[in-house]
Specification:
about 260 residues; mainly alpha; 10 helices
Length: about 260
């Protein structure tokens, strides 16, 4: 399976190189290469991470596997949303990170069995949460790219040919935020209201839950501010980055501390 992980990383790396923002014209066939390489890499990444997670004795949701899964989902979201074509700088960050993430399960083996593998609703709950986290990570990267483009325009510099207007990209950004917020709301609501049915115990105020609720509040305020006051630009970016950081700390940060630092 190490070979499969290496092939996935190579495909991500080639796609990242082909789509890397350049002052000159991109290499011939770059768009076509990305169109094929990224979905192929994501599909093979899914196969590799499924082999790492679905074990004979249960689900292995170790930090390495979880991080690899989230990076693969980020690549999937960036490709499926069309951001790799409209904003190549997003791909310049997402794809190399996905390449590194795809290698983690092969070289960082630290089994951590999921205690509720036999509960399909618990697995669905985790899956929805991971998709929401991946959406918000891509949203944060897109917000940073838009900030850079806006600074370019203020300096009188032109953007790369084919880049849609900033207002169009910003509206699309908030559609992604609304989608991620809906998934995050579903995750938190199901976790709080049906904790005993999902995990066999009432909800507790762990670091993960506190950070996740805090992230939800941040994005709720952001969406309200956008709807009521038209928040955009630096104001919106600060809220996006703050909310995404809270969510990443809530899941991956907690897993890193518990599994890697505390060995639990």
């Amino acid at each position: 399976m190490i070979l499969l992980h290496a092939v996935v990383a190579a495909l991500y790396a080639v796609a990242a190189w082909m789509g890397w923002p350049r002052a000159t014209e991109p290499p011939p066939g770059a768009a076509r290469a990305i169109l094929w390489f990224v979905p192929l890499a994501v599909a093979l990444h899914a196969a590799a991470i499924a082999h790492s997670i679905f074990r004979p004795d249960g689900l292995d949701l170790s930090f390495a596997n979880a991080l690899s899964l989230v990076t693969g989902l980020c690549a999937l979201v960036a490709w499926a949303s069309g951001l790799l074509g409209t904003l190549p700088r997003v791909g310049a960050v997402v794809l190399p990170i996905a390449a590194v993430g795809s290698l983690l399960p092969a070289f960082w083996i630290n089994p951590h069995r999921f205690a509720y593998a036999d509960e399909p609703w618990a697995a669905a709950h985790i899956a929805v949460a991971l998709v929401a986290y991946a959406l918000f990570v891509v949203v944060a990267l897109q917000a940073l790219v838009l900030t850079g483009l806006e600074k370019q325009l203020h300096r009188g510099l032109t953007t790369t040919g084919g880049t849609p207007p900033l207002l169009t990209l910003e509206r699309y950004l908030f559609r992604l935020i609304a989608t991620g917020f809906a998934l995050l709301t579903l995750t938190l609501a199901s976790g709080i209201l049906f904790s005993e049915q999902l995990f066999g115990k009432p909800v507790t105020f762990t670091h993960k839950n506190v950070f996740s609720v805090a992230g939800w509040i941040v994005f709720a305020i952001l969406l309200f501010g956008r709807w009521r006051y038209g928040w955009r630009g630096r104001m919106a970016v600060n809220w996006i980055l703050g909310g995404t950081l809270l969510l990443v700390l809530g899941y991956l940060g907690s897993k890193f501390v518990l599994e890697v630092l505390l060995h639990r």
